[in-house]
Amino acid sequence: MMRTPLLTVAALLCVAFGYAPALHAQPTWSGSVASIIYSKCGSCHVDGGIAPFSLTSYESAAAMSSSIQFSIGRGTMPPWPPRDAENRLAHSRALSAQELATIEAWILADKPRGDVSAEPPPPRSLRSTQLPEPPQYSTRIPTYTSTATTRDVYQYFVVPTSFPTDRYVRAFEVMPGNPEIVHHALIFVDTTGEARARDAQSPEPGFPGFGGDAGDLISVWAPGSPPVVLPSNFGLRLPAGADLVIQIHYPAGTAGRVDSTRLNLLFADAGPVREVYISPMLNHVAPSLITRPFVLPANEVTTMRNSFTVPFGTYSILSVAPHMHLIGKSIRAVAVTPQGDSTTLIDIPEWNFHWQGSYLYKRPVVMRSGTTLHGTAVYDNTGHNPHNPSSPPITVRLGEATTDEMFLIYFMYTTYRLGDETLDLEALTSPTSVQEHQEISQFVATPNPTSTSFTFDGKGAPAYLCDVLGRIVRSMPAADGPQTVDVTGLPSGMYLLLSGNRRCSVSVSQ
Q1: Residue 144, strand partner residues
Q2: pLDDT 10s digits, 431-455
Q3: Quick count: other Cβ atoms within 10 Å of Cβ 213?
Q4: pTM for the model
Q5: What is the pLDDT of residues 227-280, one digit of tens each?
Q6: CA 19 to CA 21: how far, in whole Å?
Q7: How far is Cα 168 from Cα 163, in angstroms, rounded to an integer?
Q8: CA-based angle 126:127:128, to the nearest 5?
Q9: Number of structural domains in the chain
Q10: Given CA atoms 210, 213, 214, 218 in this order, what sign does their dihedral have?
Q11: What residue numbers bound the domain in which 61 lies?
């Protein structure tokens, strides 16, 4: 069994057995571990999620315990980029010291299951809606085959709504048709018809382009994010006859793979609606940008700053969404009142382009007239940055291509009303229903052991071959019928073949 470094284990066990809130009994799967895994990992490691394997049962978690131990020991999983010292952000995936200690102690004790009848229900499959009620409007983009070979593709898809009157959208849910290739999605509203005209001129479904040129942004989705759900009398305006425009980012290397992403909506209740807005109050153009011009010289670490002062009125901030590209190193925003009081709005000390998202506040953050928002972004355009797309580094400027850079911090907000501070936004999107228990089934790889290759039945699902640390060493796209996997070059040892809820041990002997 893989062990985390000695000092890490010692520190965790000190937490577990005496020096911080103590664990008074040996942790079991049913007693404590399942609830941690389901709540912190269930948005990705679930049927239909972006993760390469599910963690929706005791059997699946026990089989992947070495990978879990290795990943949480390194701090790479669960992915949760923000540092949230003030505990303002909803749906945090960060593991507390107590939760880390609980999982570690459970693994070291050989993964006791406990009382099976007391096990919590597993997370619901992402192949069904996560909204608190059935969607009132649901649409799919046309079936699209990615063309992203060596460069990322940003493809727009136009969905005419034809609503005769204005509607106010209080919930957005993006369900990727192919979770393995949908990096993120932006939802726009277009009232000009320009996006529809551009779509008509393109021979393929949708048309390529970048953000900001297809209408007004009304929602953002990234893997692992729950649906955006607002109170029943809140909503973003969808004008009568407007088109919804869905921009999807398909990463390089996904060419030939097929997607048909779905968008689900709920509308605000009839009656007076509190209109909600989205705006990049902190951005990379004047007058917001303080550090000018936006140029990131090669072989330098550069700090950029921007600001925005609330000119009048009082507002309730509902969520925040920072955005940078590949050489981004960190991004932070604080609000400072005229009296000098400071509130951290978002702080991401280690930016990761692949884990960006929109962060809902547990309760609205009130912003009054005269308050100034300050943004700080650091960019590492050196050869020491493993994410730098250029080797050697080159000067990078403002632009919307992935190899360009940006400095945006979006805020979702509405005008303030007395009592907004008490609104529980997190409860609106807490999971309330679950899927039925899914048993783990075995399947066969032949020949096994093998030194060259093996064959298995794909049965229409993607498959992954993982080493004993849970690292993916081979990835196979979904296919019906037999698939052959080349293992030449892999070190001798045991590997785990995963496909949906099926798994199989494979012995490689070179």
Answers
A1: 259
A2: 433 333 333 345 688 898 889 999 9
A3: 14
A4: 0.75
A5: 889 999 999 999 999 999 999 999 889 999 999 999 999 999 888 899 999 999
A6: 7
A7: 11
A8: 85
A9: 4
A10: positive
A11: 6-118
